[in-house]
Amino acid sequence: QQIIIVTGPNMAGKSALLRQTALITLLAQIGSFVPAESAHIGLVDKIFTRVGASDNISVGESTFMVEMNEAAGILNNISPQSLILFDELGRGTSTYDGISIAWAIVEYLHEHPGAKARTLFATHYHELNEMEKTFKRIKNYNVSVREVDNRVIFLRKLERGGSEHSFGIHVAKMAGMPKSIVKRANDILHQLETDNRKDGIAGKPLIEVGEKREGLQLSFFQLDDPILCQIRDELKNLDVNNLTPLDALNKLNEIKKIARS
């Protein structure tokens, strides 16, 4: 397994698990003791983390922009020996955008030809659990809880399999939220879940999304199309080092005509 998708309720310990993994890995690299009876940890040359949420007001960057900048920095510098820790990536935007970005990043890490970096990806997007069905090196785990008499007990254990609930309303209740708000939130949640079973996110064919993946990026020259082959040949025969701006524009116009034919 290369990538672990970690789901589970708020306050269950997902972020703590990520920080703990980073610290233990760092201790192991310097030859220190680690808090375990035994540990098998490979060589790691870089530890990348995207944990927490904060804006950068001095340069006018929103929380989501900071998140995307840091994620881009990670993805552009990964190596085969990297350890990557993402905590709730994509939560700073709309649900559909967030799921799409999170899915695409996990897919990128899985399909990267040169770096199968080990990754822990903690998320509340339970739709990502579907990725295990179509990506062979992705495994689902969850930080388990037990629900007793409408109360949530955090077990602090990492178990195999994905989670389907975040128990956010339970956490709001624990924080002392007014009872009327908690009750109303439960009513709205039940209504949304009912609607989603009919035609919402949960009902969408996410397996098909995984099956239609293109890896990192498939070249369109792989297609068996004579026009694309002609365009490929035109580009291959270009001497870009001796091409003037005018020649480049003329060549681009020629290729455009070929594509239209």
Structural write-up:
Strands 2-3-4-1-5-6 form a 6-stranded mixed β-sheet, sandwiched between helices. The chain starts with a strand and ends with a helix. Helix 4 packs antiparallel against helix 5 (179-199). The protein has 8 helices and 6 strands. The protein has 2 domains: 3-166, Rossmann fold; 220-260, no CATH class. By secondary structure, it is α/β, with parallel strands linked by helices. Helix 2 links the parallel strand 2 and strand 3 (82-87). One of its GO terms (molecular function) is mismatched DNA binding. Residues 82-98 form the DNA mismatch repair proteins mutS family domain. Keywords: ATP-binding, DNA-binding, Nucleotide-binding. It holds the Pfam family MutS_V.
How is the topology of this model organized?
Layout: E1 3-7, H1 14-29, E2 46-50, H2 63-75, E3 82-87, H3 95-111, E4 118-122, E5 138-148, E6 151-160, H4 168-174, H5 179-199, H6 206-211, H7 226-236, H8 245-260
Parallel strand pairs: 1-4, 1-5, 2-3, 3-4
Antiparallel strand pairs: 5-6
Helix pairs in contact: 4-5
Key descriptive features of the protein:
alpha/beta; globular; about 15% strand; 6-stranded mixed beta sheet; about 260 residues; Rossmann fold
CATH evolutionary superfamily of the largest domain:
P-loop containing nucleotide triphosphate hydrolases
Elements, N to C (H/E)? EHEHEHEEEHHHHH
Which CATH-level-2 architecture of the largest domain? 3-Layer(aba) Sandwich
The geometry reads as: globular
Main structural class: alpha/beta
Unreliable residue stretches: none
How many extended strands?
6
Main sheet record: 6 strands, mixed
Average pLDDT works out at 84
Cα-atom Rg, whole angstroms?
Answer: 23 Å
Largest sheet, spatial ordering of strands: 2-3-4-1-5-6
Number of helices: 8
> What distance lies between the first and last C-alpha atoms, to the nearest angstrom?
47 Å
Strand content range: 15-25%
Overall tally of structural domains? 2
Helix content: 40-55%
